[in-house]
Design a protein that fits this description.
Blueprint lengths: L2 H6 L4 E4 L3 H5 L7 E2 L9 H6 L4 E5 L3 H12 L5 E6 H7 L2
Parallel strand pairs: 1-2, 1-3, 3-4
Length: 92
Amino acid sequence: MALNELVNEKSSTIIDVRTSMEFIGGHVTGSVNIPVNEIPGRLEEIKQLSKPLILCCASGGRSGQAQAYLIHQGITDVYNAGSWTMVQLLKL
């Protein structure tokens, strides 16, 4: 499935892994803020979120780290969408 389809999938959850201050400065409409450093402590919460999980940050670096960690934890329906601004542009 293409990224624009994933972003607009009704069941998807968009997770912004930037800091809360970055998130306050602008974010994808309807996204959830879970900073990358909080992911290990919020793993059970993340497992309960509707899939697929679409991860974004400022450029794709932190969301890539988060994706690798989540896959290692057994969450495989997770995608690194890169920059939150790109995700916002794709969202219908």
